[in-house]
Amino acid sequence: MSAGTVTTARASEATAAPPRHKVDLTNIALTVWGVLVYVFLFLPIVMIVAFSFNKGRALLAWEGFGFDWYKGLPHNDVILGTISTSLKAAVGAAVIATVLGSLAGIALARRPGKWTILFMALVFLVLVTPEIVDAISLLIWYVRIKGPFAPVPGGGTDLLHPVNYGLLRLWVGHALFATAVVTLIVRARLAGLDESLEEAAADLYASPWRTFRQITLPLMLPAVLAGALLSFSLSLDNTIISTFVHGAGATPWPVYVFSAVRSILRPEIAAASTLLLLLTLVALGLVALVLKRSGDSAEDVARTMAGAG
């Protein structure tokens, strides 16, 4: 048999019997499990969005597709008032938590010492304390100290209370937990960054404020934005603390929904919740845009929030 014949025979065998790929059952099982987890997480949200277009008066009694409840939201002063209170509370709590948490995170990362252990223990204590305990403690504290937390007759404002006392209570109560979260996020970000740039700026006679503004702040910006967004989200859906500390004229959206579930749950609540969901998605988009312009990405925020720095 010639060499050419042998080569032709081997080539025909190779084409006639393609290699068999081994089926990896582990990867298939993990893929299916991952899909089920995502369905479990997002199916309730999908259901709320879908039933917000229900024309019926009861949320779970489908009577046809329509935009009736969305059209009626601008004329519902109660819902608009509660959503407005929630947004004001979320913005105020996010500002307080971001400022205090960022300063605490900088101190922990750049000036560590013996005090760090005690301070971190307090931060983790805030995180692990049950929310119901925080709510009761805050309520007792507000009643005892009075001062700016004392109610104005009728739930309004005056010269001594330029901000509704119920809203002020919500700011402090919501910022308590969020400040601890922002502290850990900013600390994790700065702990993974070298101080050489800040030291070089000091060697070039830059003032501490200029060093912070031009070096430290841009480096920690992803952590600050992530902390602010997370603080806003945590405040927006806080129910337990809001139920205990809110006052007259400052009823947030979660408290209104919690009260509404005791009776018939109407599609207007699902419609308002869907709009708040869209607002959250818009906030995420704005943060992504800011990060893109600053040279960072969403991966930086994800690593920061995971503690990778």
Secondary structure blueprint with pairings:
Blueprint: H1 3-16, H2 25-51, H3 68-72, H4 77-110, H5 115-128, H6 131-145, H7 165-191, H8 196-203, H9 208-236, H10 240-245, H11 253-260, H12 267-293, H13 298-305
Explain what you see.
There is one protein chain. Helix 8 (196-203) packs antiparallel against helix 9 (208-236). The protein has 13 helices and no strands. The model has no long low-confidence stretch (mean pLDDT 78). The chain starts with a helix and ends with a helix. The protein is mostly helical.
Beta-strand segment tally: 0
Query: What is the rounded distance between the termini?
Result: 68 Å
Query: Would you state the CATH class?
Result: Mainly Alpha
- Uncertain parts: none
Strand percentage lies at: under 5%
What's the CATH H-level homologous superfamily? Answer: MetI-like
The whole-angstrom Rg is: 27 Å
Fraction in helix: over 70%
Task: Classify the fold: give the CATH topology.
Answer: MetI-like fold
Mean pLDDT: 78
